[in-house]
């Protein structure tokens, strides 16, 4: 077994962390959907500790990068409807970011107004960015099943890969987005530092992460859907903002926001026994309530940081 890693946000040694959750992994329950987006919760997790310096919860002995790459490459995809709903919520949430991008560089944005999404899935969010005026978009997605589920027009924007900074030109994007993906990478600090270099001066990095300190997640504890074998770390407001600051981003802000999904999907997340959950969803559908779209704040947090403009702190 490898030695416990240091905190991937503040580099505090493992001796400065306390146990958050003991490991709970049943290999017999792992399926092709175990590393898929918006799956039915399995409530399995690596050994998790809480950093006493920056408040990050992280797996202290996570799988290696090659093992993670193989898992995501083999994962299935079964969340097209929910991906569309999520993209709309994210687009609404980043409207102030898009407005600030335009305001702080009036008339100076390059003709190839460019955006990158890390963990792009089917590329549905990139389609929203194109509609918003971005004329060069790219998405990195490790799951071939997700890319195969995308319309042909979107597939041209997608690269099947694990994100690597060296695959892109420095200072070549105005916006980089990473939604519900920073929990999945082995080194979120490396990703944030790389993004800072990929942004043009005045460009923005936007992420959405699970907030383990949100009341709903504290209430559910180890039965929260965020307790998952995919998650190498779980953020709090303090730890996600520190991640951005340590990467050299400025004007760092974070806030919670609500998602809007069908009631059928919200029911899938309930910490119920499998048979009872299935019966409940069938009852919702029989009553015609399953497709009803409802908005809830379930502890997701959006964080924004900016690459400094020349001559400005």
From TrEMBL:
Pfam families: Methyltransf_23 (PF13489). One of its GO terms (molecular function) is methyltransferase activity. The keyword Transferase applies. It is an enzyme of class 2 (transferase). CDD domains: AdoMet_MTases. Keywords: Methyltransferase, Transferase. InterPro entries: SAM-dependent_MTases_sf (IPR029063). One of its GO terms (biological process) is methylation. SUPFAM superfamilies: S-adenosyl-L-methionine-dependent methyltransferases. It comes from the Bacteria. The keyword Transmembrane helix does not apply. Its EC number is 2.1.1.-. This is Class I SAM-dependent methyltransferase. It comes from Ideonella margarita.
């Amino acid at each position: 077994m490898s030695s416990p890693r240091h905190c991937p946000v503040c580099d505090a040694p493992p001796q400065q962390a306390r146990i958050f959750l003991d490991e709970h992994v049943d290999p017999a329950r792992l399926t092709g959907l175990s590393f898929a987006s918006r799956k039915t919760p399995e409530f399995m997790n690596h050994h998790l500790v809480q950093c006493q310096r920056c408040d990050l919860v992280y797996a202290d002995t996570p799988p290696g990068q090659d093992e993670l790459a193989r898992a995501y490459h083999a994962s299935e995809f079964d969340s097209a409807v929910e991906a569309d709903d999520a993209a709309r919520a994210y687009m609404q949430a980043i409207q102030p970011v898009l407005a600030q991008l335009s305001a702080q560089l009036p008339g100076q944005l390059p003709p190839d107004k460019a955006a990158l999404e890390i963990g792009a899935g089917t590329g549905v969010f990139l389609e929203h960015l194109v509609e918003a005026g971005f004329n060069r978009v790219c998405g990195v997605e490790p799951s071939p099943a997700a890319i195969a589920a995308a319309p042909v027009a979107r597939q041209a924007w997608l690269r099947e890969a694990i994100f690597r900074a060296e695959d892109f030109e420095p200072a070549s994007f105005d916006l980089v987005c990473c939604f519900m993906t920073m929990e999945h990478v082995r080194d979120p600090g490396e990703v944030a530092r790389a993004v800072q270099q990929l942004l043009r001066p005045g460009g923005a990095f936007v992420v959405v992460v699970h907030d383990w300190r949100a009341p709903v997640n504290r209430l559910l504890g180890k039965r929260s859907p965020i307790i998952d074998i995919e998650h190498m770390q779980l953020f709090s407001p303090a730890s996600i903002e520190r991640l951005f600051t340590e990467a050299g981003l400025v004007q760092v802000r974070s806030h919670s926001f609500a998602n809007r999904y069908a009631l059928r999907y919200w029911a899938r997340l309930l910490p119920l026994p499998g048979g009872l959950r299935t019966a409940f969803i069938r009852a919702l559908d029989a009553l015609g309530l399953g497709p009803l779209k409802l908005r809830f704040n379930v502890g997701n947090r959006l964080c924004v940081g900016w690459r400094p403009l020349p001559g400005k702190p």
